[in-house]
Each structure stands twice: as C-alpha cells, then as structure tokens.
Amino acid sequence: MKEESNSQNLEKEMEFNSSSPRTIPVVSTLTNPFDNSNSLACVNGHTRKPIAFWPGMYHSPVTNALWETRSETFERLLDPPEDATPQSELLTKTPKQSRTKILYGFSTDYILREQYRDPWNEVRIGKLLEDLDALAGTISVKHCSDDDSTTRPLLLVTASVDKIVLKKPISVDVDLKIVGSAIWVGRSSIDIQLEVIQSTKEGSDTSDSVALTANFIFVARDSKTGKAAPVNRLSPETEKEKLLFEEAEARSKLRKRKSVEKKKEIQNGEVNRLEALLAEGRIFCDMPALADRNSILLRDTCLENSLICQPQQRNIHGRIFGGFLMHRAFELAFSTAYDFAGLVPYFLEVDHVDFLRPVDVGDFLRIKSCVLYTEHENSEKPLINIEVVAHVTRPEFRSSEVSNTFYFTFTARPEAKATNNGFRIRKVVPATEEEARCILEHMGAESLQSSEGKSK
C-alpha cells in the first residue's frame, strides 16, 4: 500500500515538472458535508493535513485543482527543511516546460456552472481574475523549480498585472480553457502570459478563439532572507515564443521609463490642461446651480468597501492572495460603473496594476473607488474608467498605506443601451489639484501605451 502511494506521488511530481503536462480538469468544490474525505492522510510514511485544509483552498475550484496537481512540490513550500540551502545553479528552461492548461467543464458540470454564473449568464469576471492569478502562480513555481527536494524553495509573489483585456463575452454554458506559460524572465522576475479560450456555440468544427488575454509579473524572493533571488533562465524555441519574449522585454523597458515620461509630461506643458480640468470643477463648487448638468464631480462618483482580511484568504506564504484582492476590487469597480451609468456595465480591460505592499491576515483593508474619467470619442461605445485604491489601515498606529491601485475600463452593455434611448455617459471633473493630476497621469500613461503599440 505504501509503495502504491509513493508511486502515485512520484507520478504527480513527474507530471508537474513535465514539458507537456495534461490539461488539468476543474470540478465543482461543493461536497457532501457528511463526507469523511477530510480526515488526516498518511503520505510517504508521515501524516499531513489533506489539501482541503491547506491555505488557498477557499477561493475557487481552480485553486483546488491546481493544488491537487502540485501538492508534492508545494509541501516543501509549506514546510521546507530547516537546513535547506538555496539553489546553487540556475537551469535553462523553455516556455513549454512551464506551460499549463486548465479546463472548466461547464457543459457537463451543473454545480461548477452555478459557482461561476453571473446575472447575465456569463462567467463572473472577478472570480476569473482570481483564477488567473492562481494559475500564474503555478506557472511561476514550475519555471523556478529545480527538481531538487533538498534546496530551499523560492518565495514567489505577484508584483504586477501588466494588462488584462476581454475580447468577447465568456459564456458559462460552454467549456472554457485557460492556457499559460512563462514568456520572459529578468534576473528575479517572470512574465507570464495567459489566454482564456472558448469555442463558439455554432458547432464543434468552429476553431477555438481567445476570449481574454492577461500578463502577470511575478518576482522571486529568498524564502529565508526575503531578498531578491535569481530565477531560472528562459530559452524560447518557436518563432511565436521568440516574438512573445521580445514583446515582453520591450514592455519591461517601457515600464521602467514610464514614470520618468509621466513626470516630464507634467513638467512640460501639462499646467494648461490641469487648469482647464479644474476650471469646470470650480463652477460645481462655487456656483453649483450654473454647473453643466452633463458633468459630475469626481468625488460624487465614489464608493467604498471595508473588510478585515481573514485566514481563509491567505496564500501558502501566509499573505493575502493577490487574486482575492483583484476579485474584491473588480466587484467594487463594477458596482461603481453601474451606479454611475445607470445601466448594466460591460467589462473591457484591467490596466497595469502594481502590488505595492503585501496585505497580511488581520489587516483592516479599505477599498475605495471612483470614476476617474470618461471617454466619448466613440458614441456607440463610451468608456468609463474606474480607479480602485486599496488601503491597509492600522487604527492602533493611526496609519494608512496604499497596497494596490487598480484601473478598470467598462462600457455599457449593448442590450442595456437598447432599452434606454436617452442613455448618455456624463463627463467627470475634478474638484482638487490632486484629482486633476491623477486624471492626467493615468490618461498620459494610456496615451504612452497606445503610441508604443502603434510604433510596433
């Protein structure tokens, strides 16, 4: 019996480190409350908690499926040997070696469908963002693994989300697949690209199509010292992998100079734009009866949520799961866009997100949102740009620090606009210089990315 168990664990480990792993099936996580499967298990001669009791088990069926697949590798992360040494030699891996696929069997699993269904019979985007972060974490571990059980595993954390773009609605009635791999690495960072793929309903002969794309940046830290640690090198093989590598490297350089570019823009000629933005806001503050009825002050679009971060929301390193933060931020952004437009919003994309500081269990988290600005160039598809800022608040120390700033873009759902002929998105104006600068900086970053994309 013990030999059979060891053989199964060896197969799991080989599959996790395989260059062409099987697709990981996602199943519903709702089980019989009288099931005794959560009893302590004996593995490799010692007793350990079942995976259902490990951190990260409370978020989604995807997290559960990924942990089941990588359980042997992640046992070392949870309880590394005290005398373990860091990895002494970096390996060279290919994107294929970290490539991972997961499959949502929506067409056959009714309970799974219900876990992901939103009110419009589409997949809940917030829940999907949580899954994307979990999958990106798995891919980063696969790339950084050295296949040596005696070395000290790296601490891998989400540093930023480069961009997430929804290309088409995602149905909850059709099977869904997510495919991802490492596409570029720096000294201690890993760029991971994910694609959400869903076939159309017309027929089985229709080719798969990409419904959403996402890029996550993970950074490696030494799990003992907390300092930046080098990661395995990446060697792209195919022409597509080489192109993705070059594009990711260009984005990395762009990120490094973006802050400098924004500062130059503010210094060189942005004063006039700043004054123009503030002028309309002053009318709202000083002469509200004369203000433009098609405009609204930024501060009047705000919503806020507060929560205490719970142990069930932690990752294997004891910090709050980045996907959970994105999920909560998205839900608030969606509500803000809905309240502002008066119609059901349709999600388009997440702009670059930086995870500035970790969030710990027990932290008091305040999440604030506002409509930062709107765009009316396309009257059929006006854009609503939402800013969501997460603050870690410590009342006992009278302190509050920004953990994350998220930028989401929405428009109105076509079917919602069809039932409201007088639909119009209002213009948002700032009342303070700080608000005006925030608007200009984000609009400047958007135009910088747009010009970079055109130059390619």
Provide a concise account of the structure shown:
With 456 residues, this protein is an alpha+beta fold.
What shape does the CA trace take? globular
Strand content: 25-35%
Output the helix-strand order. HEEEHEHEHHEEEEEHHEEHEEEEEHEH
Treating each run of at least 4 consecutive H or I residues as one helix, how many helices?
10
Instruction: Return Rg in Å.
Output: 24 Å
Largest sheet: 12 strands, mixed
Low-confidence region ranges: 32-40
Overall pLDDT, averaged?
79
> What structural class do the secondary elements suggest?
alpha+beta
Distance between the termini: 59 Å
Q: In percent, how helical is the residue content?
A: 25-40%
How many strand segments? 18
Key terms for this structure?
hydrolase, alpha+beta, transit peptide, 456 residues, 27% strand
Please characterize this protein's 3D structure.
- The protein has 10 helices and 18 strands.
- The protein is an alpha+beta fold and 456 residues long.
- Strands 1, 5, 6, 7, 8, 9, 12, 13, 14, 15, 16 and 17 form a 12-stranded mixed β-sheet that branches. The protein has a two-stranded antiparallel sheet with strand order 2-3. A two-stranded parallel ribbon has the order 4-10.
- Helix 1 (2-16) crosses helix 2.
- The radius of gyration is 24 Å and the shape is globular.
- Residues 32-40 have low confidence and may be disordered.
